Amino acid sequence: MIHSKRLILADAQSKGYAVPAFNVHNLETLKAVLETAQDLRSPVMIAATPSTVRYMGKNFLIKMMEAAVKSYDFPVCFHLDHHENLDDIKNLIHMGVQSVMIDASHHSFEENIRIVREVVEYAAPFGVAVEAELGRLSGMEDDIEVDEKDQIYTNPKQAEEFVRRTGIDSLAVAIGTAHGLYKGEPKLDIDRLAVIQQEVDVPLVLHGASGLPDELVRETIDRGICKVNVATELKMAFVKGLRSYLQENPEANDPRYYFKDAVVQMKQVVAEKIKLCGSFNRG
Ligand code: 13P
């Protein structure tokens, strides 16, 4: 069932849980996410970064998503993750995406507002929800690497102004999470998140959830996080399953078989994240 991100996140916000958003890269990842979400009756978001759109081809990706969501009867929303190019975003909105993250967080505050506002205005007649980021996460996401020293935490006062002036539907916050795996023990500024939650009324988004201890993720959900983004852990599960299958079956050459363990491993991660987010039986 195709569902608007607005409604999915509004339900999560009002009931105090989070919706997991999984980055997908191929048919196997997509099926692992959707089949698990169906079993656990969880709303989910399926996310694709610009390089995934390039890798899969936008026509294939959109059609695959359309076909996939029609096959399930729980709330699913297809979301563009970390998109920066306005022409690409507009084109993909026309093609049917239901939710967009415009990432202009590397620009100045005013420029970030200007770019995000343009996307919000463009998306509005299509009913497409817009997420944007204020502050900057460290780590590697898509083709972009941000050094730890260049991360910028979200300023709560600016967050209020940013949400008000852009009209976004959800705000991605930088509170110490990082894309990819953590080098040391992750330390989150939970107090900052609590202040941001008081300042803004839109649902908050946590990027960089892979490798975060469960207690920390739960603390962020208690303080307003309504969407939890997971990419790296799913990729690691995929390759773990694939590697072990190929090690045990070195002669294997049929993808319908050698992807099986990869899907099993990914389903485990998806189920764990759904339980962690408290989104099961909400769909
Ligand atoms: P991880 O790769 O750390 O799970 O981050 C995912 C993410 O935030 C996608 O936007």
Structure description:
- With 283 residues, the chain is of the alpha/beta class.
- It has one domain: Alpha-Beta Barrel (TIM Barrel).
- Helix content is 49%, strand content 18%.
- The chain has 12 helices and 11 strands.
- The strands form 2 sheets. An 8-stranded parallel β-barrel has the order 1-2-3-4-5-8-10-11, surrounded by 9 helices.
- The longest helix is centred in the C-terminal third of the chain and has 18 residues.
- The radius of gyration is 18 Å and the shape is globular.
Terminal residue distance:
10 Å
What is the fourth-level CATH superfamily? Aldolase class I
- What is the CATH fold-level name? TIM Barrel
Number of strands: 11
* String of helices and strands: HEHEHHEHEHEEEHEEHEHEHHH
Proportion in β-strands: 15-25%
Structural class determined from secondary elements: alpha/beta
> What is the CATH top level name?
Alpha Beta
CATH architecture: Alpha-Beta Barrel
What share of the residues lie within helices? Answer: 40-55%
Q: Main beta sheet: strand number and arrangement?
A: 8 strands, parallel, barrel
Bound molecules: 1,3-dihydroxyacetonephosphate
> Unreliable stretches, pLDDT < 50, 5 or more residues?
none
